[in-house]
Write a structure and sequence with these properties.
Radius of gyration: 18 Å
Strand order of the largest sheet: 1-2-3-4-5-6-7-8
Order of helices and strands: EHEHEHEHEHEHHEHEHH
Shape: globular
Number of strands: 8
Length: 278
């Protein structure tokens, strides 16, 4: 079975090298790939790009930029230099979109964090545009508001885009982070109507997760209304890749071929109404 509409985030199969991700995603008929910076650390980016092109994998997104906040000017300047490097990597790899996890600094107020994020993205948008990159703000679940992102809802992400006003800044919707929000439909449609729904990430939210960061569920293992959100996203006219992004110590400890087979089987069950293994 082929999956031309799917892209896999390389962090989903964290034990695999970049070369292994490229090889095994292509073999399973997956259409695209989103590249985590950790996966390409120390590699020849020109060679990686050739490998992706030769395998027929569409470059989708570079993950991740952001973390704009900091108590001092020096902290924030270091973050911007990291983001400049992220843009250079995306350009070298032919990845048209950079996903932003915006950051939050403990001890700062939510407003202080927000303003630093706004100013950081506004600056980054200029040189990202010169490199041909779009920036996708990814709102994170409120449980991460203390130290990972002060942008926690689609509404806040939309408001941030309005305030920045840059044509290459939009939003990535991740079901793990947004499924709970009763304003999700309204704000997703607002986002799409403004032409800034840039990314769509899927996994599942396990209510009994044992690790706040590394225990996401494969689709069908949790409680997120995946079919309903998918119908909403597609109804807005979104035609980009459906990106599978799962962090799971449980699954990273398993055979990665079996894990990927299970992911695709569950994707078929949820999104193609095929029999499930659950």
């Amino acid at each position: 079975m082929k999956y031309p509409e799917l892209a896999l985030h390389t962090f989903t199969n964290r034990p695999w090298s970049m070369g292994e991700c490229i090889e095994h995603y292509a073999r399973r008929g997956i259409g695209g790939i989103s590249v985590w910076r950790e996966t390409i650390e120390g590699l020849d980016l020109a060679k990686v790009k050739r490998q992706m092109d030769d395998a027929g994998l569409k470059p989708v997104a570079h993950v991740r930029g952001g973390f704009f906040t900091g108590r001092t000017t020096e902290d924030r300047a270091r973050a911007m230099e990291t983001n400049r490097e992220c843009v250079r990597e995306a350009e070298a790899l032919g990845l048209p979109m950079i996903v932003l996890v915006c950051g939050a600094t403990p001890g700062q107020t939510p407003r202080e964090n927000y303003e630093q994020i706004r100013d950081g993205i506004a600056e980054m948008a200029g040189w990202a545009a010169e490199a041909g990159s779009t920036l996708a703000i990814e709102p994170l679940h409120p449980v991460y508001a203390g130290d990972r992102s002060a942008i926690n809802t689609m509404k806040t992400a939309n408001d941030l885009c309005d305030e920045i006003g840059a044509a290459n800044v939009g939003v990535a919707l991740d079901v793990y982070h947004t499924w709970w929000d009763q304003d999700l439909e309204t704000e997703t449609r607002r986002c799409a109507d403004a032409g800034r729904l840039l990314g769509y990430h899927i996994c599942d939210y396990k209510p009994d997760q044992v690790d706040m960061l590394f225990d996401r569920g494969v689709m069908g293992e949790g409680c997120a209304p995946l079919r309903e959100i998918d119908a909403l996203v597609k109804d807005t006219g979104f035609s980009g890749f459906t990106e599978i992004e799962i962090f799971s110590r449980k699954w990273w400890s398993e055979n990665q071929h079996d894990y990927l087979d299970f992911i695709l089987k569950q994707y078929d069950a949820i999104y193609r109404d095929q029999p499930s293994d659950l």
